[in-house]
Design goal:
Length: 128
């Protein structure tokens, strides 16, 4: 199964440096159609306005966390099947359980590299 590298990917993080890092990692694995949002509500309005093949979101954001964003996406009829990868700084069991219950497709623990990112994206999109 080949993955469509031209799909639009939305990356969400309230830390500009992290957005740049994720964008660069995506570029290394040939995903160049990348849109950014700096918080959950901006991400949600971009998602509702456009068509995205994948969302990669940080967990720890304010005012809307990645988990709340995920719950909003899953509750939206048009968006609910969108693949969603959560990035978290700590792999606390309760976070992982909460994300799984909310319908996360996969998650990545920081720090990570392009290899890990590609692996997670392939897992998420490869079985679509």
């Amino acid at each position: 199964m080949s993955i469509d590298k031209s799909m639009q990917v939305l990356i969400v993080d309230d830390y500009k440096t992290m957005l740049r890092i994720i964008r660069n990692l995506l570029k290394q694995i040939n995903f160049n159609n990348v849109e950014e949002a700096t918080d959950g509500s901006e991400a949600l309005s971009k998602l509702r306005a456009g068509t995205f093949g994948l969302v990669i979101s940080d967990w720890n954001m304010a005012p809307m966390t990645g988990l709340t964003l995920l719950q909003e996406v899953r509750a939206d009829n048009r968006l609910k099947t969108t693949p969603f990868i959560m990035i978290t700084a700590e792999s606390k069991t309760e976070n992982v359980i909460a994300a799984k219950q909310a319908g996360v497709s996969n998650y990545i623990v920081k720090p990570f590299n392009a290899e890990t990112l590609r692996d997670k994206i392939e897992k998420v999109l490869g079985n679509a």
